[in-house]
Design the sequence.
């Protein structure tokens, strides 16, 4: 299921509304629920463990993740929600298209300074940087706003 790990929270989206009493999502607070999740639903946490400094400590001791990870498992067969199937080629095309405008997206995302897109091959434990886009403030005042500089780095 799609999920988001950020700061003190883990949110899981349930688009088929099968697992959370008919609700389309559920969120946990790591400081309150992290140790229980680690013990009872480790299979939901496994995709995060070992990724970008996320480890068991994130859910049991520190109960905090410094950053945000979005996890989007891809549909490999049609479902009642959509007939669209995402192949590796289609995902690659989507990411290439996103990259073309990623620097512009950053200018309008107030609290996001950097977007990094990683790819992890099936069976691999280490993700590989596909590209990074970051924005930095060049001058505090530029006309009536701010002037930004964007940088794109490819693998």
Sequence:
């Amino acid at each position: 299921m799609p999920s988001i790990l950020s700061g003190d929270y883990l949110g899981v989206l349930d688009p088929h509304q099968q697992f959370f009493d008919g609700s389309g999502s559920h969120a946990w607070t790591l400081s309150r629920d992290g140790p229980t999740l680690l013990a009872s639903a480790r299979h939901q946490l496994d995709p995060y463990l070992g990724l970008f400094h996320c480890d068991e400590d994130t859910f049991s001791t520190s109960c905090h993740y410094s950053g945000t990870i979005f996890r989007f498992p891809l549909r490999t067969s049609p479902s009642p929600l959509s007939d669209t199937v995402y192949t590796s080629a289609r995902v690659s095309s989507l990411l290439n298209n996103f990259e073309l405008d990623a620097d512009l997206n950053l200018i309008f995302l107030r609290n996001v300074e950097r977007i990094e897109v990683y790819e992890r091959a099936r069976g691999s434990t280490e993700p590989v940087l596909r590209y990074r886009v970051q924005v930095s403030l060049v001058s505090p005042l530029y006309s009536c706003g701010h002037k930004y500089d964007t940088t794109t780095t490819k693998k």
Notes: The mean pLDDT is 82. The radius of gyration is 18 Å. The helical segments are 30-40, 42-45, 56-60, 88-108.
